[in-house]
Structure formats: C-alpha cells, structure tokens
Amino acid sequence: MSAFATTAKHIRRSPYQAMAAIVTLFVTFLLIGIFFLSAVASAFVLQYFERKPQITVFFVDKATKEDADALTKKLETTGKTSSIKFVSKDDALLIYREQNKNDPLLLEMVTADILPASLEISATEPKFLADLEPLIKDAQGVEEVVYQKDVVDTLIVWTNAIRWIGGIVAGLLTFNSILIIMTVISMKIALRRDEIDILRLIGASPWYIRMPFILEGGLYGLVGSFGAWMIITVLAVWLRPALLAFLGVIPVIHTLLVSATSTQFVLSSAGFLSGMLLSGLLLGSFGSLIALGRYLKL
Amino acid sequence: MIRFDHVSKRFSGQYDALSDITVQIPDGEFVFVIGPSGAGKTTLLRLLIRDILPTAGTVHVDDWNVHTMPSSKVHLLRRKIGTVFQDFKLLTDRTVFENVSLGLEIVGKKEAEIATRVKDVLELVGLAKKHRSFPGELSAGEMQRTGIARAIVAGPAILLADEPTGNLDPETGWEIFTILQEINKMGTTVVMATHNASVVNDVKKRTIALLHGKIESDEANGRYHVAKHTKKP
Fold first, then answer.
1. What is the predicted ipTM?
2. What is the CATH number of domain B2-91+155-219?
C-alpha cells in the first residue's frame, strides 16, 4: 500500500477530524488571500499616485492660457521644477472620457466647459515644494492646489494599515492552523500507535512511517487553499465591475480586470493559485512535521 | 552470526532481566530459548532487534554492533531479522495478502514482485486460499502463519519467533513449528523462544535454557524439563 493510499485510508477513517483541519485552513487561506490581494492592490494605487505630478494647480473658469503661461514662466525661473505640463479644458475632457469610457451616462453629462484647466508640476526635489507654494498661491486665476503628497501620505497610512492588520491576522490564523493540524495529526498518531509499532518492528524506515502523516497534513493544506482560491476568484469575477469603476483609473488594475477571460486575468489567477497551493502544502506539511517531531519518536 | 558478549539488561527499578549473557548462534542454526516466564527470553529477542538496549555488554548481528549502530540504521537491522510475535501483531484492517506484502512494501519492492513473492510465501505457510481474508476472519493458527509469512517474505537471514505457539493448541503448534523448521532448512537462522515442551523434547535441537536472567544450560540436544523450566503458579 503506497503512502498515498495509506493517507487516503487515514482520512476515510476519521473524516470529521480531516474536515476540521480543512475548514480551518480554508478560512486561513481565504483571509490571507483577501488581505494579500488588498495589499497588492493598495501598492498599485500608491505607486500610481506616487508617479503622478507632485502638485496640480486648477484654474478658475475665467482664467486664460496666458495666466497659466505666466505661472509656468515664474516657476521655471526658480530652477526648482523638473516638469510643468499644461492641461487645457479640452485635454481634461479627453482624460475624463478615457477614464470613463465604459460609462456612457457619465460621458453624456460632462463637457469641456465644466472641467478646469490645470498645471501639473513636479519639483526637482520634494523639499522645494514649500518654496514653490507661495508663488502658486499668489498667481492669478488659481482656484485650487492639490498636493499629491497629501494623497500619497494618506495612501501610505492605509497601505501600511492593511499590511499590518493583514500580517497580524495572517500570523494568528497560520499559528491556529498549525495547532489544529498538530492536534489532528497527533490524534491520528495515537490512534495508529499499534500499527506504527508493528511497522517499526518489521523494519519500516522512519520516513516510510512518517510520510503518510506528512502527506495528510499537506493534503489538508492543498484542499483548504484550493477552496479559498475558488471563493476569492468567484468574488473577484463577481465584484469586477464594481472594482473597475472604483479602481479602473489605475492602469495595472484596469488591464487586469477589464475582462474575466483576458490573458492577464487568467495568468494572474493561475499564479495566485500556484502560490496558494504551495503555501497550503507547506503549511500543512509543516504542521504535520511538528506533530511528528513531538509525538512520534522513532 | 549472532553474538551476545556479557550482556546484562536491567529495567528501571527492577532486578536484572538478563545478567552476563554470553552466547553465539552461528548462521543457519535452529535454537530454542526456553525458561519460565520472566526468565529473560523475550528480553533476549528484543535486544537483537534493538527494541531495547543492553545495560552492559554488546550484541552483534553479523558485523553490526546492535548497541552502537545509529538510530537511522536500525530499520536495516530489522529487515535482516524477521520477527514472529506471540500475539501475531497483524494489522486488522488489512487482508492476509496486504499484511504479508507489508514486509516487501517497506523495502520498496515493485507491485509485480510483491505479488509473486507473497503468493509463494502464502503457499509455503498453507494460506494461499485465505489471502483475501482479514485477520478477524482467521483462526489463531492461521493468524500465526500470516505473521510467519510476513516475517520471512523479504528473505531475512534470521528469524526470531517469540513463543509463536503460545496461543495455539498442540496440533496447530506443531504445524507452526514444522513451518519454522522448513524455513530453517532453507538457510535461515531461527531463534525460537518457547514453552512448548513437546516440540523441544521431540526435535532435539540446540536449546538455551534461561533462569532468572542467566543461562542455566546451553545444550546441543537440549530438553525441556517441565518442573524446572515452567514457573509454578
């Protein structure tokens, strides 16, 4: 009887213990998976905003191109700007249309008139932003100044929060999973003590005896993580339109979620599945190995 | 070759189960180990498969010092020695065939080879027709035959039988002994711990008699003296 057949027999003999381990690992991987994807998405969002110009100056409706040019000239003479780009009302409309091309209702409601012209400014060094600020505020026709730093700082706080909370929850759940696997495997070791003794006495190698238990833990991890991946994938497909509306402005996320049958989505999903299965296998086997080390002295 | 050199074994807080045992058993020999309960017969056999370690002295099986060999190699020693137990030690959830094939599975033999070898061994012990039965469906004698088949299926150099007829009626006991004798004729060293006086006295093989953990006698054609070698109630 192969190690796989012995493992299958072990599981058939005590299905409720197996189920407890699998459900625990399923919940663990479900939450870890969701936190992982949230952390990845927040990193993309952060990266997107970090790459945007550091200051965006919006002009009032009545402001002219000359007002923008005057401000541009004044800023350039400081030598502290690395790039200044003028975005006209028409350019703003093009950007808006591109961002909302999947929502005809939003496109119908907006014309170039109601969108402000703006200047996108990047400083050569972040410390120069404070020097540029008074010049911008005193300029003619300026309505609002958006500092990307504020947005980025807020995003960093959120990203860190997701990472910390996710990390702590993942750590606790992983610890709990290992304890559950240890408990289940140690109970199986106790139940099969006679069989183990016989195998030992007739010359079975320690690894021959251990292998079915390690496979069992690994199998729990595989099944639990696969179940979690399935639920997460179904959720991702179901929530795709909402996610696109909310985060579609970010190119990476837009490319990924634009279609549930796109190569990017399928490949990312397959990669995510591989990672989940590998983690499940390792976690389950690790729990078994600890139980074997603790309760099976050969 | 089995060699005990001044071997003693003391279990914690007890008297010496074995005391200063020195004995050699050449390859291919059939040896009875007799003595009353508690004389040290089982301890002697357990030392050979390193189920326990001696308190003093050395045990050698061929070139291996059983005491000092690394734990990671003990299974190799046990593959060299087949063991038959008084309580059979069969896996109750496996058929006769599966129990016997276990001896080959653990050494990684291929299925086809296992099937052929197990079939041969089951024929040798007279259980060919029972290969699909579970231990619960067998008589005590059949269970012991299964245990013997499992012990010899991988062709061990030595066969230890710890009171293999202890739970059997006299007739079945003789059948089991006959099988062990057949195995010995094929070149396997057989060491049989027993209380079966009639077998020992009738076949006249080398007999090591233990008493209070010491060798009381070691005779080529030894006899089992019921009055001396059986503990009085």
1. 0.85
2. 3.40.50.300
